Amino acid sequence: MADGHTGEKGNQMMLDGKVALVTGASRGIGRQIALTLADYGAAVIVNYNGSKEKAEAVVSEIAAKGGKAEAVQCSVADFEACGNMITQMLAKYGHIDILVNNAGITKDNLVMKMTEADFDAVVATNLKGTFNTIKHMYRAFLKQRGGRIINMTSVSGVLGNAGQANYAASKAGVIGLTKTMARELASRNITVNAVAPGFIDTDMTQAMTESAKEATLAQIPLKRMGQPEDIAETVAFLASDKASYITGQVISVDGGMAI
User: Mind listing the pLDDT tens digit for each residue in 214-243?
Assistant: First the structure.
């Protein structure tokens, strides 16, 4: 673990002194969120489930720029493990100010071919995992009388998507959870928002066939994929004091797909 912080976003260290927990932060969008929050001055807890080497690479990248981070293993689908992770991190840092629920999995198929196990696994990670971390952070946020929760939903959770009944249902559930938590926590100066990425350039989308990519691009008014940085900058804004009057919202970062 390295101490200090970067100044790569000009002089606006808008998250200086904050501690952020980012779930599923070893790769893709989660990785970029961790890097960006660190760039803005936050100490970042890089949660991962199975990708230890990739998580440690994120920590090393943050440390190389003078930031502060550490990797912590935990499956967010495991309620007890989430509780242990958060208890340990609160004891170590004294506070967690920003919770980014990014961890998610896909097991796509038409419902006719989808197994019960595949439905349950996606809901357990994407929706129940979001509940698990919020549940275990709830009292700490109340005690602090402040905090930011940013939940990652998806354009699939907004629009639905054939072949993704489990994923779309889990992400739509995240939207309902986000709005409910926003109402429960607003009186304590805790904001809860969701970000809904569209077609973002990650390992997952790179694995798609060219025909599938072209079909998806045709549905995007801006006619291009988004970048992980587009999502990460939105998360950083919602985590900052600049977004103190925004809560219960779903911010679509999708090039216009959900218009």
Answer: 999 999 999 999 999 999 999 999 999 999
